[in-house]
Structure formats: C-alpha cells, structure tokens
Q: What sequence folds into this?
C-alpha cells in the first residue's frame, strides 16, 4: 500500500469510526461483530443463531426485539459472504434512535479493515465496540531508534505500540580525565581515537539491525549529551539510513528507559513528519499555480473534468470538506443528474425532489438515488485513473489554505490540459 492511498484509507476509517462512536442505543442492544480471515461463515452463522436464542431471555420486550432484529440483520449479511475477506470483516448493527425515544431504526455498517484483524468477537452493548479498529489509525510504520552517549549505545525498533530493544553495547571508554598538562592531552587523543572506534561499531550494528527492515520509515537518535550529534555528523551509518534520520531527541538515560523517552516523544515527531508531507504536496501545488504553468487547478468542477480525462497526477482534498454528491434518478426514464450540496441541505432537497416531475419525461417519479460524501466520490474516480489522492488535515497552514482559498478540492496535473 502506498503512503498516499494510506492517507485516504485512514481518512475513511477515521470518519466511519467517528460516526460509529457517536451512535448510542436505548439499552444494551447494539451488536459488534469482528470476524478474522480463516473463520468459516457457517461457524459464525451458528454462533449468531445461538446468540439469537440467548436473547429470547431478555425481559424488556423492546430490547429483546431490537437485539433479535439486529442479530437477524447481521446473520443475513454474513450469509452473503462466501468466504471471510482477507483482512477479515467487521459488522456493526443495532437500533439507533433517530429522533427521540420510539424512533429507533436498525442501522447496519460493514467495515473492511485496512489491515488483517486478529480478534474474533461478538458483543451486544449500549455502544459499538470500535476500539479494535481504532488501533489501525495509529502510526504503523516501523522506525528505528539509537540512543547513545560516550559509554553506551542502545538499538531498538518500534512498530505501532510494539517496542523491541534489540541490542545494547558499551564503549569501554572511561570518563573524562581530570588532571591537566601533557598526560591530559595524550589522554584526550586516545579518547578521541576510542570514540571513533566506538562510533564505527555503533554504525556497524545499526546497519546490521536496520538495513534488513523492509519498510523502515525513519530513524530517531537519542541521548543525553552532544554525542548523538557527533555521531550523526560523522556518517557512520549506511547512507540510506543516514537519510532516514528525522529527529534527535534529548533523553536522560541511555538504556531501555532512554528508548522509552524517545518513544514518548515519537508520536509528536511522526505527526510532524506527516505535516511535512502535507506541506510539500501543497507547496508544489502553490508553485504551479503561482508560476501559472497550467499544471495545477482547483475547484470541484474543473478538478472533476480533469479527473474524468485521466490527467490528474495528484488529487488534493481537505479533510474538512463537508459536501456531499447527490444522484437523482427518474423511475420512468433514463434521466439522471448529479449535484453537490452541503450535508445539511440534503434532507430538504430530498423532500423537494422525491415524487416531483421529471424534466425529461414529465412523469412525477424523480427520487434521490444516492448520497455520497464528496471526498469519497472524487477519490473513487481518482483511484480508477491511478491518481494519487492526498487527504490533507486542517492542522497545517497549508491544509487550511486548501480549504479556505481553494474550496478544499485541488489537483496537480500530469501535463498541461488543452485549452
Ligand atoms: Zn423521466
């Protein structure tokens, strides 16, 4: 998976989880089901049938009915799968009050996890259990850590929450010599040579540990004093590793605890890395606009046109876009129309449209066929054309600019469009 698809997948999951987390049932009647790859559909269906039976003991009539309805819906959906997909399957279903008590409607959500899920879980609760999916929103790339001072070096890797301290070595260099005069200068020279030798060893160990890691995202250096900077400047690492150093972190310790200090600060560091990526792509866009090269465009209509022509290299979307794309169809002829509007305008539009006269055949059979988030709709078109999609957060100045100055939709083109 490319980093760029990644920003879209993460955005979609984030949006879905925000919605699901906000849902609340009347009582204990919301069903969460996690099925990992490898489970038989028949086995899951049998478990659900069993749960349906157990639910018949629920005292409250309404709760019992809601729980059993939810289980029935989940079972029906489950049966539509011949096989559990590669990353597993997550279904949320339950009666959600739409407008106060008594207005519950069964809602069902199917989520395809971006990575394989391991957990097999059925829960019936007052909320949806989304926590096993929240995990996927965390940074998942592996990064390497070297914490060092003049006497020790520690090597570790971190992936998600998993921290591995791989190796610790010592330099054997004694502390600073206090005496003055000639012997002190000789001592300094010897110390210098020993330091070189130690840095070489640190470099060799680091190469051995980090080079084989296929998707090592970045390397962090830590330690209490200036030693880490001397090491960084001296090119003791393989050049591909040297290029991956993204930050140096001051720590109080040079051991497991020092590594943990780096990890504590790493979330912030990794977020900054994503910011830098966002800034870069936006600055590229601004350069093309500023120099009037014809290689950049913005605004939904123009971007859509170029997307459909297949000439968009990178599609830039603001995470804060709240527009939706509505498809209207006629039940009597082939008339159909798409329109973009704000999310809060949809209900009124739907009321106005449904059952009104078709402009083509005049039969009053128009209806809103589909409502889709604009981000999803544009991103899907982009994916068909092999276009990279960057969803920019509103947390950088550049991301704000995309939203405010360019309507949240912009594109960098592969080549200049014919006028
Ligand atoms: Zn019609």
A:
């Amino acid at each position: 998976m490319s980093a760029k698809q990644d920003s879209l997948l993460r955005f979609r999951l984030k949006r879905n989880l925000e919605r699901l987390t906000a849902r609340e049932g009347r009582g204990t009647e919301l069903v969460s089901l996690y099925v990992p790859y490898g489970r038989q559909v028949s086995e899951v269906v049998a478990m659900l049938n069993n749960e349906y039976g157990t639910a018949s003991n629920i005292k409250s009539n309404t709760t019992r009915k809601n729980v059993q309805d939810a289980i029935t819906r989940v079972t029906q959906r489950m049966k539509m799968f011949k096989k559990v997909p590669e990353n597993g399957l997550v279904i949320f279903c339950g009666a959600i009050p739409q407008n106060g008590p008594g207005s519950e409607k069964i809602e069902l959500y199917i989520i395809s996890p971006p990575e394989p899920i391991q957990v097999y879980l059925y829960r019936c609760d007052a909320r949806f259990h989304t926590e096993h999916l929240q995990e996927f929103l965390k940074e998942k790339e592996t990064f390497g850590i070297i914490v060092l001072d003049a006497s020790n070096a520690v090597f570790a890797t971190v992936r998600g929450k998993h921290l591995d301290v791989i190796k610790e070595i010592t330099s054997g260099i004694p502390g600073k010599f206090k005496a003055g005069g000639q012997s002190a200068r000789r001592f300094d020279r010897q110390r210098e040579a020993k330091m070189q030798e130690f840095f070489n060893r640190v470099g060799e160990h680091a190469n051995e540990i980090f080079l084989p890691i296929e998707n090592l995202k970045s390397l962090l250096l830590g330690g209490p004093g200036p030693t880490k900077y001397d090491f960084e400047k001296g090119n003791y690492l393989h050049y591909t590793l040297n290029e991956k150093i993204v930050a140096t972190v001051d720590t109080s310790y040079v051991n497991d605890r020092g590594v943990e200090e780096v990890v504590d600060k790493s979330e912030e560091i990794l977020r900054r890395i994503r910011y830098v990526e966002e800034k870069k792509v936006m600055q590229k866009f601004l350069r093309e606009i500023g120099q009037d090269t014809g290689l950049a465009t913005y605004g939904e209509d123009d971007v859509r046109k170029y997307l459909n022509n297949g000439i968009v290299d990178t599609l830039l979307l603001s995470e804060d876009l709240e527009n939706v794309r509505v498809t209207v169809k006629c039940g009597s002829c082939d008339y159909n129309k798409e329109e973009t509007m704000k999310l809060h305008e949809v209900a009124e539009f739907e009321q106005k449209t449904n059952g009104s006269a078709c402009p083509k055949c005049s039969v009053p059979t128009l209806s809103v066929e589909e409502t889709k988030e604009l981000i999803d709709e544009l991103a899907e078109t982009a994916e068909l054309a092999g276009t990279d999609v960057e969803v920019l957060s509103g947390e950088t100045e550049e991301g704000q600019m995309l939203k405010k100055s360019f309507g949240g939709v912009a594109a960098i083109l592969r080549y200049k469009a014919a006028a």
